[in-house]
Write a structure and sequence with these properties.
- By secondary structure, this protein is α+β, with helices and mostly antiparallel strands.
- The chain folds into two domains: about 260 residues, Helix Hairpins, CATH 1.10.287; about 110 residues, Distorted Sandwich (Glucose Permease (Domain IIA)), CATH 2.70.70.
- It is built from four helices and 13 strands.
- A hairpin with a 6-residue loop joins β2 and β3.
- The longest helix has about 110 residues.
- Bound molecules: zinc ion (ZN).
- Zinc ion binds next to loops.
């Protein structure tokens, strides 16, 4: 049956976890606190992963159970249809037999009527013989009629009576046979009626089973919906914890004086060209793209991705207006195609500070920012350093 009780308690933990996520991690916390925050979130992530796995396994079980019920419903449907078809055939047979019975009953009644009328004729003839016999005998005695005449008349009457008796015997035999057939037909009808009732019972039983299975499936469907909702929520929790951990790790890096860049344009606009091999937007064919292009409107602020010092600001036929910021540790960020820059060589910049405006100078088809991250002057994929989009 439905194991809804087991399926129900897991997501009751959910609101508590979500509430704890809303507590922001304050700035300027100690490194130890950061490590604690990360550890706490990692534990919660593990918990979320375990809950996700459990809910998914519960969901699999629900799917399996629903599949079993679907098969049972199919079987029951088949049983029900079979029983109904059986009932229809038996009932048709019973109706045929009933029609036969009705005909036989009519025949029996007709035979009874024939017998009754024969009996009436027979009795009136007997009376006639008695009366005529008496009268003619008297007539013979009184000499008013010949004895021969009397005898021949008596003989004729007796022949007729004998014929009557024979006919009545035949009719009686007919009647008996018809009555026998009528009884057999009645018995057959009763038998068919019993079988039809049995088939009806089977159909009713199948219908009842079907209703029960549908009920079970409804409960499972509710469980499924709840599980799917819980899974979706746990996935959100899991993802948010991951993002929070990433941000805390960035903060950790920053505190340790390590490179931890942010997105170069607020709102993280879409990437229009990835780092690496790909089609050249101007001359066609493949080329090795040394940075990541972000599509943005002309004039959109360009931000310093990390604290550093501006080491170059110049025009280049390929990069257009180019700015290079050194972040220490052999890492530098390059910004290309800007309309203009508002910081100068030698200037110290803070992470997130506006350094320029998006433009379309140099080798460019439209306003965008070309961002490079170079480590010891080797171009790296910026997206492997920047926060996940
Ligand atoms: Zn580019």
């Amino acid at each position: 049956m439905v194991r809804s009780r087991k399926l129900r308690y897991r997501w009751l933990i959910l609101p508590v976890v979500l509430a704890s996520l809303l507590i922001p991690s304050p700035d300027g916390v100690r490194a130890d606190d950061l490590a604690d925050d990360i550890r706490m979130r990692q534990e919660k992530m593990d918990e979320a992963a375990a809950n996700l796995a459990a809910a998914k396994s519960d969901l699999d079980r629900v799917y399996w159970q629903r599949e079993q019920i679907r098969l049972k419903l199919q079987n029951t449907e088949y049983e029900m249809n079979l029983a109904r078809a059986k009932h229809a055939v038996l009932d048709a047979q019973r109706q045929d037999v009933q029609a036969t019975w009705s005909k036989l009953d009519a025949s029996v009644k007709e035979t009874e009527a024939r017998l009754a009328s024969r009996k009436g004729q027979f009795h009136s003839r007997l009376r006639a013989i008695q009366e005529r016999g008496r009268v003619s005998y008297l007539g013979v005695l009184l000499g008013s009629a010949s004895y021969g005449d009397f005898l021949s008349r008596m003989e004729m009457l007796q022949t007729i009576v004998k014929h009557d008796v024979e006919l009545m015997t035949v009719i009686r035999a007919d009647k008996q046979q018809l009555e026998g057939e009528r009884t057999a037909a009645a018995a057959e009808e009763a038998r068919l009626k019993g079988l039809a009732a049995q088939a009806q019972e089977q159909a009713d039983l199948a219908a009842a089973k079907q209703a029960e299975f549908n009920q079970q499936d409804k409960a499972l469907q509710e469980g499924q919906r709840a599980l799917e909702l819980a899974i979706a929520e746990w996935e959100v929790v899991y993802e948010r914890l991951g993002e929070e951990i990433y941000k805390l790790q960035l903060e950790q890096k920053r505190k340790a004086g390590r490179f931890a860049p942010i997105e170069p344009i607020r709102g993280y606009p879409p990437i229009t060209d990835d780092f690496g091999f790909g089609p050249d937007p101007i001359v066609g064919g493949n080329r090795n793209h040394g940075g990541t292009d972000f599509g943005a409107n002309r004039g959109t602020p360009i931000l310093a991705i990390e604290d550093g010092v501006v080491i170059a600001r110049r025009y280049d036929s390929v990069y257009g207006n180019l700015l290079i910021i050194d972040h220490g540790g052999g890492i530098a960020s390059w910004y290309g195609h800007a309309e203009s820059y508002m910081v100068s060589e030698g200037e110290t910049v803070k992470q997130g500070q506006q350094v320029g405006k998006v433009g379309s100078t140099g080798y460019s088809t439209g306003p965008h920012l070309h961002l490079e991250i170079r480590v010891e002057n080797v171009r790296k994929d910026p997206m492997s350093y920047l926060p996940p989009r």
